[in-house]
Amino acid sequence: MTVIDSAVLERHGIKPDEYERIQQLMGREPNVLELGLFSVMWSEHCSYKSSRVHLKTLPTTGARVVQGPGENAGAVDIGDGLCAVFKIESHNHPSFIEPYQGAATGVGGIIRDIFTMGARPIALLNALRFGSLDTPLARRIFEGVVAGIGGYGNSIGIPTVGGEIVFDPIYSGNPLVNVLCLGIARRDDIVKGAARGAGNPVYYVGAKTGRDGIHGATMASAEFDETSAEKRPAVQVGDPFMEKLLMEACLEVMKTGAVVGIQDMGAAGFTCSTSEMGSRGGVGMSVDVAQVPQRETGMIPYEIMLSESQERMLLVVERGREREVEEVFEKWDLHAVKVGDVTEGTRLKIHERGSLVADVPNRALTDEAPVYHRPMQEPSWQKTVQQLSLAELGEPPTAQAAFEALIAVPTIASKRWAYRQFDHSVGTNTIAQPGASAAVVRVKDTSRGLAISVDGNGRFCYLDPYQGAMLAVAEASRNVACAGGEAIGATNNLNFGNPERPEIMWQIAEAVRGIGDACRALNAPITGGNVSLYNETEGRAIYPTPVLGVVGILEDASRTVTRVFKSDGAALVLLGDNSGELGGSEYLATVHRTVAGRPPALDLKREAALQRLVVDLIGKGCIESAHDCSEGGLAVAIAECTFDAGGLGVTVDVAPAANEVGAVDELHRAQWVTNATLFGESASRIVVSSASRHLDTVLASASAAGVPAQEIGRVSGDRIRLSVNGRLAIDTPVATAETAWATAIERIMSRQAAS
Amino acid sequence: MKFSVVVFPGSNSDYDAFYAASHVLGEQSELVWHKDTDLKGADAVILPGGFAHGDYLRTGAIARFSPIMNAVKAFAERGGPVLGICNGFQVLLEAGLLPGAMVRNDRIKFVSQVVPVRVEQTDTPFTAACSQNQVLKLPIAHGEGNYYAPPDVLAAIEQNRQVVFRYTSAAGEVGAQWNPNGSLNGIAGICNHRRNVVGLMPHPERASEAALGSADGRFVLASAVKALASVSR
User: Fold this and answer.
1) Which positions ≥6 away from B166 have C-beta within 8 Å?
2) What ipTM does this complex have?
3) What domains does chain B contain, in order, with CATH numbers?
4) Any CB–CB contact under 8 A between A103 and chain B?
5) Taking the complete model, does pTM exceed 0.90, yes or no?
6) Interval A201-239: pLDDT, tens
7) Which of B27, B34, B53, B86 is catalytic?
């Protein structure tokens, strides 16, 4: 028998004080199998031990919230007895090690979380971060991740309807792959992941268990170093066909009413599903690993319990109705196997051919996992990076040159290269497709639609995590509003570095505080999410990158609008103040190679008023297009409204931005003001176009709502002509700008293929 | 009339075809499981899109052995209208109900976008409601839609007017720049010699309502309704 010494503990990622706690909870020394169970369940990935105290501060309730955090996914009421069930989840670490399979299994995992709740998944979105496409490594990861997302989602037949992709050298050794899935369930049909009723049988169904992914959750809870590539066996391989069968069979079997509880086997596999279902239901569970279908021979209980083989589910079935359940799975050529029973008490008992090999109080693995109040400290460099002196940046380029550079930078350029590989039309619900600010899917058999957006700005969060996180919530919610959706719920994915470093922990706490404040103000309760820590390579952390997914409802889906101009002669109105804040902007990063300054200011009351106004105007049919101003500022936002608009141009004249540009060379002052006006990324701004007959209504409604509004131009001609204070600053044919924007990523990726 | 939509394990557009036929066109429709052996009184059969059996081998290669395929073949031999959409088209090729084969898209990657497709023939049950050379806006979403046939077969199907749909520009021009996947002669869909079995890679069922961006796909299913009505009259 293996002696548990410090080397064994280290291999399991268990700290000495944690081991003491395990012994207390067990009342004895654990055996190695039991230690393995604690190792995966107490990993950061499963236990949220560093983030839990902070996550508790988030707003999680609201009139529409049917299911908040703690279940496989959250759910919000969307009327007519229906719920939107959604969650976002990350697969960052596996996607670095093996991009295709890492991303594919990330998609598979979040889909299982949704159909496990009894919901039919109808939409996928993703938020992706890669290094600079100038490097072969980033191109390889980008190519693999996009193919993996498509390979899984396309095959299973759930459309990928939207998302966002950002490229920055900070993510070169640590890409982010966050996937959101949304499904629709009848409110009464929602199934929970809790075991109940002693004597009820426990069933295993799906793919056989192999040795893949053992300790995957532990891997995702450590930093990367030069040996990370050797961890490849800890990445799993996805089988979307198996998942498709599982999804159809599970949704069908839930309709029988014979399913008491169900959970997928994701991170920490069989261990997580058995212990979590038991502890949620306040019951025990007794299983025999010898009954688990195995893909390889000679697997020991330790391997079976810790495997993360994909596409597997655990079900608790009402005793006496086993046959009904088995028949449905047989129809789909799946074999449902009884692996144990629900028991009285609260212990998870694991047997091998009848003999007891592990016996653990299941709450010790779940609710009683350690919770850390880790030390926090504002980084010593924080105030320094917030200093921005434009004078030190030298001569500003002309607005024309900056504009041409910005529309072709991969973060701003069209992501068509990626989403052309994603099936976005399957399911016949997709109304606004990838490339719109928010995706819109209709809810069949109702007039309603759901608008969904995922957003995050790591640069802003690096400069100020509290402010940056608020801005992420505001942007996601604003994008939803621009499609006509009123926010009804949100999900968050927290991507950060090593929480054992006080500076990182401070970033996490500040970001969560920002998310909480913004979600409260914008009525978007958090119904679930995911935390991905240890996103570091060779000791260098990514930017703190909270990603927010916001879901909004449209009472009449046919009223939705996109960013794209609809008619010649329409008036262009800027809603919100054009303050010209350049801190943390894409302009500074792309043109001046500088990441500095304070992120844009955000007044949550004004933001909420702006969003309500736009939702109201879209509902009334008063505006033809709406687009929020984010990366690249007003100039890029206006240009994007002309793209895909069949050649419609625009003529605009705006007043100079109100904010001071500070001490700059007088020779360049006018150019700085122009550039700040056109490329500043101030929050709470939306550009709308409106037919002349509705213009008065738009301006009057804005005035009544207390939202600043100014008519800044007209949809006209076939050029993008932007002036500041009457001086023409940008003048480009739409066709030229659109080609540069639409093909930038394709050109980079085909250059790679050619070399 | 009644549409029967075959459900293979891995079909993912089965419900979309069912929905278009039943909810959009208002016709009677039924989903038929691949292990069934009869078509439940179908007037027209649809083999839907998807990844039957995972398509890990060759698209459609396993689905052709499903029990329901015997009934589909018999139905086709009696002259019954059969429509294969995307993966369903691939299954029809593998089953020998249509000539030729599919290979990987010429640019390797999966392609998902709306493309113009020109109607080449109107004397099939799935184009009877279209006009000659009408250009339809239809979505494609496939990794293996690159139609191939040996030169003699290709010449024969062109000669026999079996090319039913072709990828073109929005104005109906044929050219390599309008061909999204490298298909020979820009072929998007074909029919058999008898003209009752039609396969196409684009998805008409996904473009049958204006809310989804195009309602042009309605012409395809509505054609079957029209064609059958004229037969029974």
Assistant:
1) B117, B118, B120, B174, B185, B186, B187, B188
2) 0.95
3) 2-232 (3.40.50.880)
4) no
5) yes
6) 999 999 999 887 776 656 566 666 655 555 545 667 889
7) B86
